[in-house]
Amino acid sequence: MNAEIRPIRTPAEQGLSGELKALSRAGGPRIVALRTAAAQAFNDNGLPHRRVEEWKYTDLRTLMREALPLATPAAVAQVEAHQGLLLDTGARRIVVANGAVVPELSDLADLEPGLSILTLAQALAGAGETLARLGTLEPGRYDAALALNTALATDGVVIEVGEGAQIARPVHVAHVVSGHRPAASFARSLVVVGAGAHFTYAESFEGPAGLGYQVNSATEFVVGDEAHLDVVRLQEDSASALHLSTLLFEIGRAAKVHAFSFGIGAGVARTTLYANLAGEDSQVGFNGASLLKGRQHADATLFLDHQVPGCESRELFKTVLDDSARGVFQGKIVVRQAAQKTDGRMMSRALVLGDDAEMDNKPELEIFADDVQCGHGATCGAIDDDLLFYLRARGISLKDAQSLLVQAFVGEAIETVEHDGLREALVARAEAWLAARG
Amino acid sequence: MPAVQETVDQVRSIDVDQYKYGFFTDIESEKAPKGLSEDTVRFISAKKDEPEWMLEWRLEAFRRWQTMREPDWARVSYPAIDYQDLYYYSAPKKKAAVSIDEIDPEILATYEKLGIPLRERDALLGIASGGTKVAVDAVFDSVSVATTFKEELSRAGVIFMPISEAIREHPELVKKYLGSVVPVTDNYFATLNSAVFSDGSFVYVPKGVRCPMELSTYFRINERNTGQFERTLIIADEGAYVSYLEGCTAPQRDENQLHAAVVELVALADAEIKYSTVQNWYPGDKDGKGGIFNFVTKRGDCRGDRSKISWTQVETGSAITWKYPSCILRGDNSQGEFYSIAISNGRQQVDSGTKMIHLGKNTSSRIISKGIAAGRSDNTYRGLVSAHRKATGARNFTNCDSLLIGDKCGAHTVPYIESKNSSAQFEHEATTSKISDDQLFYCRQRGLDPEEATALIVNGFVKDVLQQLPMEFAVEAQKLISVSLEGSVG
């Protein structure tokens, strides 16, 4: 039973409300109205707590103790020294430090024909026409992380891929936090992929180890008819940091979208993905893997809305939990009445290595069409003793045997990344995690 | 079965008015004044001749209830219930019967019509129960009208009686166990039930006794504007075994009637309880008018080591079902099972499932749920499987399948799987589909018409669960399934 009594505002909520008093006026009346509405929604609803169904397992009201001051621009040399993720993948690199694009470190020269990249600040100042798409993807419900991002983010990357453009080289947006004081950074990006285009987008997150900063990132993806988009994400924020990210997708007819999120860092991480399958016959795959240890908490939440007939969706999430880490998977597939012939499969698997680890799975199906094939599965358990025995009988040490099996376990999800350079980089990160495991 | 046009038409013209238990027995009854207040609670308690402690227990529940709010998280929608517009107690006016021959013949006739033999002689002849002996406790509105085979059971040491009688005759047992599984403050409807429950069955199976026959309760709502609030308490002492069946029907009416029951099961060490339900309350007509609101709290506590509780349910009736039979696996090596078939048609709404709470070591549970949605109904499976930090070696297997018949209905799955223990092993799988064209084609090729083919496939779909039902019930349930889906699959 929900008590509708408005709880006392936490220090974090009060702090955030203070920050929401002075909103940026950039971007014209529509953007200003969006910011104002988002700020108002936050003031009305505050941070989600465990009685809010979508945040049941990630009680942000408790987990976010304070509102940190907004991050200030970082020193270029420091950022350069700090960045370390996905450096040699061959991707075009754009660095966003403390929520603002650093042109000095970004490779914005010689853009391929059909590819346009602006900073959000430039776009808000009136450059380009893509801005009209910003903030148009709506999850249809109040989402505190997204509302704060909408209200407070002033920079990020705006990418447009023209109709039919085949961009072989991925664009990698590296989010780096730099500084000595914990601060909160907000970044908002928009990726528009024109009809028939092919594009690979990568995102990474990192920051100084031991620093308790906060990152709130949101990216909107507008995918045109018959377009092909690959998204690869790597999150290795500091183990004391709070990481919130929101991904919004609108997918056109016969498009192919594949997204993979790899989470290794952050003390508390929550990634929410909203996808609208608005065009017929599209194929989507949303996959992810998390490697967690210590007292890390990672939440992957997914809302998939099948609105039209004939789409296929596949989700595969793998979570490895060591020590007393906590993993959360919530996935919801909605199949509207019109969405006949939908084929949806969702799977969440967790491997529990630590005695005090916890895994919470909530795969949901909500189906209103009859001619569909939908299923979900969820498993959770320790490493299979038979498999361990098999390896050990061949002279492999317990630790190595475990590493091999964990690698194979997350490997299944990482394998789905199409781009060779990015996939190999992710495999290397997984290996590094295993090697560091005592 | 969307592939075949005739079936689509039939789904559209679906006729849920085929409810054959919709008759009303015209007998004089005695009711509590309409509405709910402390006086109502006192009235019920006085009617039942209850001791002071019971009245206090009820009043406490009632006070608590007044501070609670109706839950709204389930995937069901219904007009607000006016709790002051109900009768909370209704009993046939004739004095309590001492022997079966003193029961109002009208009531006897009612049960005969429902196929429930109250005369032991008839039952022994196997008139309606297919030759097997089943002891029946018949609950008519708010009171138990007859309990059969009492003597034979008491020879085995089994106590089987209306709970109101047990409160007077076995207060020590009732005091010890009542509210120990479903606390008074558990949830809105359970608290309401604790305040105003009028009757239900009480079963106590002593140590090491295997109950010599199946026990069963048959619930009948008859009176207009009444709510039925029954309370069932079953205790299987160490090493005991009991199988219990429950059936329910109600007259066909345009208004909604409330049924808020609480069932508590306690299994001590090595004990086993098997609880089967065939729920066939009036589901409302095809436009969703009338029908029973079935808001039930059922929970079993595997309190002792190696104990086992098994729930089997066939849910075909009720306008709204809100029901989650659960198992608390407290004892080491205890087992919980949940087998369910939930069929919704017309405008029925079902939100049902189970909770398996693993607390002891090496506990295991199994959930098999089959939902079939037809017409304009909504069918939701909602379940929780959780393993406590200390529940080493916990195992769960869950399988929820949904079948959709027609494109105006919905099937939903909302499982919560929470594991706090590394050695716990949980598996969950769910699928939703329509009857596959391949299966249909295969059957039709062999000369079955589409309706027969569909019926055959549906029966195969629910087979896992039907097998868990006691023989007599399985036959009834199978018939019920075909009646429920009549007009949509045949």
UniProtKB/TrEMBL annotation, chain A:
Domain SUF system FeS cluster assembly SufBD core: start-end pairs:
183-409
Extent of the signal sequence: none
Please report the stretch or stretches of sequence annotated as the SUF system FeS cluster assembly SufBD N-terminal domain: 29-173
Family from the record: Belongs to the iron-sulfur cluster assembly SufBD family.
PANTHER family given in the database record: PROTEIN ABCI7, CHLOROPLASTIC
The name of this protein is Fe-S cluster assembly protein SufD
Q: What is the species of this protein?
A: Ancylobacter amanitiformis
UniProtKB/TrEMBL annotation, chain B:
| InterPro entries, A to Z | Fe-S_cluster_assembly_SufBD (IPR055346), SUF_FeS_clus_asmbl_SufB (IPR010231), SUF_FeS_clus_asmbl_SufBD_core (IPR000825), SUF_FeS_clus_asmbl_SufBD_sf (IPR037284), SufBD_N (IPR045595)
Domain SUF system FeS cluster assembly SufBD N-terminal as annotated: residue spans: 150-211
NCBIfam families the UniProt entry points to: PRK11814.1, sufB
What protein name does the entry list? Fe-S cluster assembly protein SufB
Q: Which residues form the SUF system FeS cluster assembly SufBD core domain?
A: 219-461
What the record says about family reads: Belongs to the iron-sulfur cluster assembly SufBD family.
Q: What lineage is on file?
A: Bacteria, Pseudomonadati, Pseudomonadota, Alphaproteobacteria, Hyphomicrobiales
